[in-house]
Specification:
Strand content: under 5%
Largest sheet: none
Number of domains: 1
Number of strands: 0
Helix content: over 70%
CATH architecture: Orthogonal Bundle
Shape: globular
Structural class: mainly alpha
Distance between the termini: 22 Å
């Protein structure tokens, strides 16, 4: 069930925008997905799916990634909200 006014397509698209923002944060930090996966002791293919938006990441995963990148998870979400709003 989705919140009033939010349909499944919008929710899916927002997840993809969050993934795009995570990719931008990785690049801004001068890292690669492979390097980040090593730092997180995580399977690179799994992390790759998350940052491509083909698999949804949990809030816990977002917090782990954000911590390694030196940014707060809420800041990644705020930036993703801005990206999402710019698309509409």
């Amino acid at each position: 069930m989705y919140a009033q006014g939010v349909n499944k397509d919008e929710a899916t698209r927002f997840g993809q925008v969050v993934a795009a923002q995570v990719r931008a944060e990785i690049a801004a930090n001068g890292q690669s997905v492979a390097g980040l996966a090593r730092e997180l002791d995580m399977n690179r293919e799994t992390l790759d799916r998350w940052v491509k938006g083909t698999r949804s990441m949990t809030v816990a995963t977002l917090r782990q990634i954000a911590s390694v990148l030196g940014v707060e998870a809420h800041e990644i979400l705020r930036r993703a909200e801005e990206r999402f709003a710019a698309e509409v």
